[in-house]
Predict the structure.
Amino acid sequence: MAKIDWPAGEKRSLIGKRIDRADGPAKATGAAKYSYDINPPGLLWAKLVTSPHAKAEIANLDLSAAAALPGVKATWKDDLKEVQYVVQIVDAVAA
């Protein structure tokens, strides 16, 4: 195992010292903006539909009702007819 030679406590510049972060107050008060908070115009949201079963056969996936809803821009379904594992994505809707 490697031997780590730490400097003496009085010679340490960061370890054990208080460090003020410029973004600390914004994060602590909830004022900070994260990428999840930014929604540009035209942004699409997707809903994935997953299988609750493993080793299942898909008899039919009809997305016509979802595609007809207002605001829906695209639908997708997997061409495979057999689900291999639980939570396998079988279709998606973007609106």
Q: What stands out?
A: The first strand starts at residue 46 and ends at 50. Residues 5 and 70 are 65 Å apart (CA to CA). Helices lie at 24-29, 64-67.
